[in-house]
Amino acid sequence: MQVTDLTAATSSLAVWSAKRLPTPRTASAGVPLSEGVTSVFLGAIAYVPVALVTGYADWNYAVAAVLVLGLSYALCSRRVVVGPEFVAIRKFGPYRLAEADSIASGALKPSEHGGVLTLRTGDGRTMRLRRAEYSKPEVNAALRALVLRTHRTYDEGVIGAARAAVASRLRSPPLPARRDGVVGCP
Questions:
Q1: Are residues 49 and 21 both part of a single domain?
Q2: Rounded distance between C-alpha atoms, residue 143 and residue 145, angstroms
Q3: 102 vs 7, 13, 72, 105, CA distance in Å?
């Protein structure tokens, strides 16, 4: 597979249109639908106290609509695209593009919502992928292939940390045995 237009796209490091991203694209991921709907719903509900305090003034509806539309855009604009020779991450604006060779290090960091995969490029940029993005099977496989193809030393650390995180989730404490010897709740 040959990547087309990678040098033209990476000269700017920012690509506004998905059509201008290099091809082929192996995988892509965005915000899960359930997370998006829940966030927009909670954003609309959170505005209710403001409407109550202001007595449901006419301008409240316009402000609420703008806030819900802004939150919807923020959620919909989040996207990760992975190709055989590049990673592109979009958050609010243009896609930030990094060639596979320019990725200097990577690390999995724990967070409140499942972890963040951080990729650092040679020019000092940091690209972050949330768990919902990098745990999608096709994105995970594409990232793994991209990381292994570069033959860098951080590969083992990132892949080892990912394996350890999965293994720790799979391990659970044994269920207590009841008095009659049956395993389960007492």
A1: no
A2: 5
A3: 12, 11, 32, 9
pLDDT of residue 102: 85
**Do 45 and 24 fall within a single domain?**
no
Full domain range(s) for residue 68:
34-75
Number of Cβ within 10 Å of residue 103's Cβ equals 21
- Which pLDDT band, with edges at 50, 70 and 90, does 76 fall under? confident
Look up residue 54 and give its two tokens.
Answer: 């202001």
Q: What's the DSSP call for residue 57?
A: -
Cα separation of 107 and 161, whole Å? Answer: 8
Residue 115: which pLDDT band, with cuts at 50, 70 and 90? Answer: confident
Lookup result for tokens 């200097």: 104
Q: Among candidates 24, 27, 30, which has minimal Cα distance to 1?
A: 24
pLDDT tens for residues 118-156? 888 888 888 888 888 888 888 888 888 887 777 665 544
Domain boundary pick from 54, 75, 96: 75
Nearest-angstrom CA–CA distance, 72 and 123: 32
